[in-house]
Amino acid sequence: MGAGPDAATAGQLDGAGGGPQMRILIAAVGRLKQGPERELAERYRKRAADFGRKVGLQAFDVIEIKESRADNLERRMLEESIAIANVIPDRAISVILDERGSTMNSAAFAGRLQEWRAADRPAVVFILGGADGLAPSLRDKAELALAFGAFTWPHQLVRIMLLEQLYRAVTILGGHPYHRE
Asked: Is 6 part of any domain?
């Protein structure tokens, strides 16, 4: 595992100190139904939001995009990608979750969030496409493609894993002992 921020860096991340605030959004095609997956996702989202405010990250929101009912693959990908593009704020960082993307450890992920926040970007949007994937136009605009390993994961689990990693990242940035190296 890579090294997390040192104590001096963690101290500089205090959101109450007037530093830049950055919004975290998850744009996910499809809806989590009521049940244990939704409950677990919400638990990590709430934890990340509560602790995130202390390190200058705010509004951990999940935006569920309706799945396209188009007859062909290209049209479904295009419709879903347009709906996602419409929720991405100006100047936001866009990160797609893709099994072909890069992998990184939790400390590196926290460091990337810290860099984006320090660059005064208004938001990071994590994009979870539908079963058919994303249109090339949206994929090409992403600043990062991120993978949770080479396995193919159900979208519900990817959302939960992403929210847990966001919570872990904010605890790393805040010097909380949740993450142990």
From this structure: no
